[in-house]
Fold each of these.
Amino acid sequence: MMKFAVIAAGEGARLVEEGVALPKPLVLLNGEPMLDRLLRIFFDNDAEEVVIIVNERHPQTAAHVRSLMAEHPHRRLRLIVKNTPSSMHSFAELSPYLENAPFCLTTVDTVFREKDFRDYISAFKTSLAEGCDGMMGVTDFIDDEKPLYIHTDEEMNIRGFYDRPHSCCRFISGGIYALTPRALRTLSRCMAEGQSRMRNFQRGLVADGLKLKAHLFSKILDVDHVTDIEKAEHFLRG
């Protein structure tokens, strides 16, 4: 069994500035809140438990999660309500609940096709028997404002992460991380060193010698702007 975790503690400031009234986790994609969509997909992939961190400044999101917990008592949902300065800090708040099983972590605004995700989780479970410490969801579709480029070899082993494109980099990070608890030691080290960006955590995994694989998704989108909502809906309908 696996655990899953969702970082939904961001401000969603750009969506607010562009007139979106709902907190980002509750923004609808084809009629379904982004957070609900992730939870549905995770439980469809046999999630043992899903841990969610949300922002104190958006009580509507916390109330929504609590209503889901009441509506689906058979689902193991754990809610953390706390303001954090970065995604890595949010990950650190989630980490005590991820120590005893492989887990998959993503941010709430990461959009992908459900079949791609099923294939990804299946591939990760297979890789565990081969001594893999983690599998990153990657894409060759670049629509990110600050993409993180990934260097992979011919077997899709990850060799490095770069802020700028290199000839050796075919893919970028999609912000989907399937990891073993061993990765939490790297997280603790990065936090102790004052790191605050998930890309530095990923670099830390390589520096610490963890065996990482990349898994290609057909496309992965982030929802940061109003125009991204329409893009994501069209992508999912397609």
Amino acid sequence: MSDEFDAVTARICDRVEPDPAEREALDAAVERLVSRVEDAVADLPVETEIVLAGSTARDTWLAGDRDVDLFVCFPPELDRDRLESYGLQIGHEALPESHEEYAEHPYVVGDFDGFQVDLVPCYAVEDATEIQSAVDRTPFHTRYVAERLTPDLAGDVRVCKQLFEAIGIYGSDLRTKGFSGFLVELLVLDHGGFRPLVAAAADWQPPVRIDPAEHGRATFDDPLVVIDPTDPGRNVAAVLSAANLARAQHFARELLADPREGLFEPDPPDPLAPAAVREAFENRTTTPVAVRFEAPDVVEDQLWPQLDRSEAGIADELDRRGFDVFRSDAFAEDGGGGRDVGNADGRDAVLLFELAVAERPRVERHSGPPVGVREHAERFYEAYADDSDTCGPFVDGDRYVVEREREYATATEFLDSDAIFDVALGAHVETALEEGYDLLVDDDVATLADPFGRELARFLNPDVCGP
């Protein structure tokens, strides 16, 4: 690898490392926050431990990031209801300007001295394999990384995070399906730095298995498997999509071939105006159709899997009916990047399908079994022999065939019918569609440019070199 690789990454490292003023502000805020939490827990009838977690605890946070994760650890024998109740009580006392959010259980989020704080209750279990809640692992992750990460490796983690952030694959939420901070830290630790990680990633042939603590037991069916060193039954990379793993490999090769700072700089496309959307689809001579509805009132990590399932279910049925789906996608108005608890004000969600075939002949061909297979052939023949709405049965080659009226000759007929509810939909999405949806076809799809102009720009120009 060239010296330019090291020069570029050194400049990026300097750029993304928090300066002394940021560090001082963080330390002061955490000290004051911990003091407030200590006051809030003082009168509780249980022992607690306060743990700073996340990237700020491990010194892998990026300059400009203002997120603080503070965990209040409770005895394992405390029942879940009281853990949740105490956690919310502490959170609201320590963070007066706060609101509740929900992961596996509720927690409190609020602004404090210019930082956004997640104050999370968890169980103080002895071992990560004994967790009672998914967040119980986090203190173990913090200790594991902090004990092994040198200042140089912490800088390499920041560089890797900045690259993944720039190319749109940083984040383990179920919208992004990317690399979590802990996963990046493990990869940098396991490879001994950012440069050897990039070199290895460029040559990965999925499925890839990495076992930092050499547990050597569990198996997973994922493109990248990184065994949690604190919990051998968990793949840290389970959320990562195959597409985002491939994207990481593409940019690893780009960085090796032509090291440049531009790869570390987000460059989102400009939002498209309605006229540009109409022109783009006209030039492609495809037919866009979109199902627009009010997004279900659920947290982001419940919403996006359901949107993905619904998009795939409808696309599969469109393909099965002969309306060839050229490409599809799902959009939803921003709900806070995975941080909101609901959709009280209502926001749009969209399932978009670009069709290579939007209309089929009114008649379709239905082939039966070979005539020589007597029992099945006779059953097929008898089923249609007296059906005045079909042509046939007749013999074509060695089979009985009928020609019958197609149930839906256009994709819009299908999408505008109750048959849409017969496909595999996300449960909350199905309920939302039952309450009503708009079907947009051709030029009407351009009305989605507000608020989805940037999403449409990515859809119509899915350049691998853009985030």
